[in-house]
Amino acid sequence: LQAIISVFMERTKHKRELKLKVFERKTEVVEKAMSWLQECCDTYRMLQMSLRAYDEKRNPYHCNGILSSVAKSDKLFRESESRFNSLYLYYDFSDIEKKYNANESMIVIHKLFSIVSEITQIETGIQDVELIRSRFANTLNNERIASFRLCADALDSQISICTEIMQRLRNEYKSYLNKY
What percent of the chain has pLDDT over 70? Predict the structure, then answer.
């Protein structure tokens, strides 16, 4: 009888230790992901503000805001593998990604930035011909502004995705902590 109780207790102890290790690993992964998600939200919001504020005057402050936000976004995406992707081992966010059309909104954002890049290349190419430049400068800049506004709207989906994932993770940890 003592041997059976001892085996049962060892098995229970082993399960408890295993659960603790998984919880510790999940906590580490969630902490990194939450930090990354918050940085993404902050960067997207800064980019949104700069895109929406950009106008025909080409204020250097807004231009710098766009450039620095894009650079920060690039840095975050390079870090996503180490700071965010391991979260998918423990969690499934496909419902959130579908709800906000995650892939489609990223495609729109990338296409709009491609359009803006093409506009900039066209402007650079026609700088030498002043008559052409003056005729098309306003049109090109209006297209850039329209693209920026659409991009800012598309960022709403990405912000919502990050925010909802963070909320789900917080709720899970609250419920886990309330259990114990």
Answer: 92
